[in-house]
Design a protein that fits this description.
13 strands; five-stranded mixed barrel; alpha/beta; 34% helix; 22% strand; 9 helices; six-stranded mixed β-sheet; single chain
Length: 354
């Protein structure tokens, strides 16, 4: 197999070079089932599992392989299986806080060039949710693109497009109807040979229909949304890297009902760049945008330049990140102690064997 067809480039080759000199192989994960991974390699498709060392040293799920990762492998020729020794540095990763009580990072897709944020132009349409997706998209390291799908059911398309353009600052906003096959060509610049894209969005927004259009076959299951609330079921239940006829690659992801942020404020600043710019004009550097004199943010709210809903969402996500940061700081310290302990234990075992 030609690895360039699966997104291999100079970035990964440079990081792999020390391993190549030691005789290791390399592959890209295109599917995961529990602890078994499927890889694209120069020797074809191979099943693989993470080495005991890799699992032992992992302090959380983010330290384990994910769909889209390039991994260093040893191939067991007699079994036609591979063992994953290391994960090559990720060029990008779309991740969220793991659902539930643990403040742990969950990687949704790795090494993507463009992240399509898919929004339905039906009852799914929610500018505040779009802002949340854009924060995470910008933090991923990939280039975000907003797709407004289901144009065929929207009576106020242009107004919704304007609303999105006001919150998706400097992000391309594309309109299409995947069900009707209209506007799919708008995605062509992002799915050329070797390029990897991923789709994220709520259940029922039409991600699987878009993928089927791009593939040219009905590979992904689709279901009509429920009447009444126009919400869909999770037709995609796992993550998979698929090859497109254009030479590009696409990672489908299950719909997300819980979209919990991680503590990285760059995405917040980029997504709310207009508010950040206003805050820089406030008289006081530490302005709380409440009742301080010379507050540019309050002035923009009062004259209608800044929407109250947008500012409210900004403050809400600031608070959410601050609360999570306090919990994560404690967890990071504990995880680092555990990591160092494991390394010392591994070193002791190695010295005893010598």
């Amino acid at each position: 197999m030609n690895l360039e067809a699966f997104g291999w480039n100079e970035f990964f080759a440079e990081n792999f070079e020390p391993f190549r000199r030691e005789g290791y192989g390399v592959g890209r994960i295109f599917l995961q089932h529990n602890k078994i991974y499927m890889l694209y390699t120069e020797e074809g498709e191979l099943p693989a599992e993470a080495s005991g060392r890799l699992r032992y040293l992992a302090t959380g799920s983010a330290d384990l392989p994910a769909v889209g990762d390039w991994v260093v492998i040893r191939v067991r020729d007699t079994e036609r299986k591979a063992t994953i020794q290391e994960i090559l540095p990720r060029k990008s990763k779309f991740s969220r806080k793991m659902v539930g009580s643990r403040d742990e990072e969950q990687i949704v897709a790795a090494n993507i060039d463009t992240l399509f944020v898919v929004v339905g132009l039906d009852n799914d349409f929610n500018p505040r949710r779009i802002e949340r997706y854009l924060i995470m998209a910008r933090e991923s390291g990939a280039h975000p693109v907003v797709i407004l799908n289901k144009a065929d059911v929207s009576d106020d398309l242009e107004e919704k497009r304007r609303v999105v353009e006001r919150v998706a600052l400097e992000v391309p906003v594309l309109v299409l109807s995947a069900k009707q096959g209209e506007g799919i060509e708008e995605l062509s610049p992002y799915i050329g040979a070797g390029q990897t894209v991923s789709l994220v969005g709520s259940s029922g927004v039409g991600k699987s229909t878009i993928i089927n259009r791009l593939l040219g076959v009905e590979k992904q299951k689709t279901q009509d949304v429920r009447t009444g609330d126009e919400r869909g079921k999770h037709t995609t239940t796992h993550r998979e890297l698929l090859q497109l006829p254009t030479g590009g690659l696409i990672i489908d992801t299950p719909g997300m009902r819980e979209l919990q942020l991680l503590v990285r404020d760059q995405g917040l600043r980029d997504t709310f760049d207009d508010i950040e710019a206003l805050a820089a004009l406030c008289y006081f550097r530490d302005c709380g945008h409440e009742s301080e004199p010379g507050c540019a943010v309050r002035a923009a709210l009062e004259n209608g330049e800044l929407a109250a809903e947008r500012f409210g969402n900004y403050r809400k996500m600031q608070e959410e990140m601050a609360q999570l940061a306090a919990r994560q700081n404690r967890r990071v310290v504990e995880a680092e102690k555990e990591r160092v302990k494991k390394l010392h234990q591994s070193l002791k075992k190695f010295n005893k064997r010598r």
